[in-house]
Every structure is written in structure tokens, then in C-alpha cells.
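User: Sequence in, structure out. Go.
Assistant: Echoing your sequence, followed by the C-alpha cells.
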Amino acid sequence: MNIQTVCVYCASSERTPPVYLEAAAQLGRTLAEAGMGIVYGGSSLGSMGRLAAAALDGGGRVTGVLPRFMDDLEWGHRSLTELRLVDDMHERKRTMLELSDAVVALPGGCGTLEELFEAITWKRLGLYRGPVVLVNINGFYDPALQLLARCVEEQFMDAKHAAMWQVAAGPSNVVETLRAAPEWPEDARTFAALR
């Protein structure tokens, strides 16, 4: 798969441990070095801000997607390649996926988790076919991965659905993990039939 643009889900909190902020910056640099553009939530704060700044410093392309009410609160990053303003959170999530060839989730809060699980749901329904990679810094995603495994174990999902996501131990492993992800079926009906 030719991955040109990666949707990155991450947090805007400035209070997280520094390891997460540093990981966001490293991911921004790594994607820029690989020639992959970034689509993200458009904030200048927290992991979002570190991701964007590092990618831009490395000559990368960064598109932010931000609801207008957040821009009114001056949360938007003003130095991006492009800042797209949208009407609401639903349009933001849809636009981010539509602009990307792959998804990467850094550690984050409820917004990040919602975006991640929506991307997996879209993939389950055949609406999105790109790789979905969880960056499991400090074992952050271990509980989520256990929950997903439980969903398969209890047959809410087929065992084949466990191939919908991959895990990278840290930012330095993300590009190789994206490139090694299995191709997903083109036919949404075929995919949805995997129950």
C-alpha cells in the first residue's frame, strides 16, 4: 500500500508525562522523514502541538482539522500547511479519515479513544481500508488491546477481525508497522461478511 498521508490521533493535554509529548514529537519527525503527510486534530497544545511542530520543522506537510467552536477558543495551530475548519466533531472525524491512507493512535484521552474505535468500526464495515496502528508507549494501550481480544474471544468479532489493527512499541516502529500491515478487502460486503 502506498501511504502518503497518515491520520494521527493524539491528545491536547499539557499535563501528561513528558514521555508522551516526546513520543508525539518523535512521531512527527519520523513521518516527515518518511515523506508521509499528517492529518490531525489541528490543536497547538499537548501531543498535538508537539507532533505538528516536529513534522513542520522536518519539512513535513501537516493538515489540521478543527471544529469552528475550537478555533473561536483559539485552540488552532497557526503555522500548519493547512488548517481546515469544519462545523462539528462528526465532520472533523470523517474529514480526517477521508484525507488519510492510514491511522496512527498515540496515547490520549476519551477523544483519542473514540476516534480510534470509530476508525476500527469503519474498517470493520469496509468503509475504511487503511492500516490502523496503536502506538503502545509504556503499555498504554494494553487494556484496550485486552478488551479487543475479549471481543474476539466472546465472538462479538470474528478472529479475522483481530487483523484490523497493529501495534507499534514506539514512534520509531510506526512506519515499518504501517508498511507491513495486511491489505484489507476492497469489497465492503465481503468484509462485513466476516462475522
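User: And one key feature?
Assistant: The radius of gyration is 16 Å.
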